């Protein structure tokens, strides 16, 4: 399974490719149809990218809740100042 970062990189590469195609199409006679298709695909990819960012934020929030990190007011404390058990929970959260 690809990581979220790998998926976001792949989506951004596709967007860049489509933007290059869009620039090339501007000189084409059938450009209206092609421009519309490319713009629709760029919009779809941007939405997918936004969904990935949102889902990763949601997943992070769920993990922090499961580790009782949010309810223990631990969000404002530097990791270096945490006890060993909280540091371990941070490592678990990072691993997920």
Rg for CA atoms: 21 Å
The biggest sheet, with number of strands, parallel, antiparallel or mixed sense and barrel status, is: none
Q: Which structural class best describes the helix and strand composition?
A: mainly alpha
The quaternary structure here is single chain
Approximate shape:
rod-shaped
* Terminal-residue CA separation: 13 Å
Helical stretch tally = 3
- Which spans have pLDDT < 50 for at least 5 consecutive residues? none
**Helix-strand pattern, N to C?**
HHH
The total count of strands amounts to 0
Percent of residues in helices: over 70%
Strand composition percent: under 5%
Mean pLDDT: 78
Number of domains: 1
Compose a concise summary of this entry.
The chain is mostly helical and 96 residues long. It is 73% helix and 0% strand.
């Amino acid at each position: 399974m690809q990581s979220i970062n790998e998926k976001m990189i792949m989506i951004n590469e596709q967007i860049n490719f489509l933007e290059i195609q869009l620039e090339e199409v501007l000189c084409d006679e059938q450009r209206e149809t092609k421009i519309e298709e490319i713009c629709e695909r760029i919009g779809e990819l941007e939405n997918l990218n936004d969904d990935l960012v949102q889902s990763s934020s949601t997943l992070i929030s769920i993990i922090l809740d499961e580790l009782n990190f949010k309810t223990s007011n631990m969000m404002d404390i530097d990791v270096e100042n945490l006890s060993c058990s909280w540091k371990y929970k941070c490592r678990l959260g990072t691993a997920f």
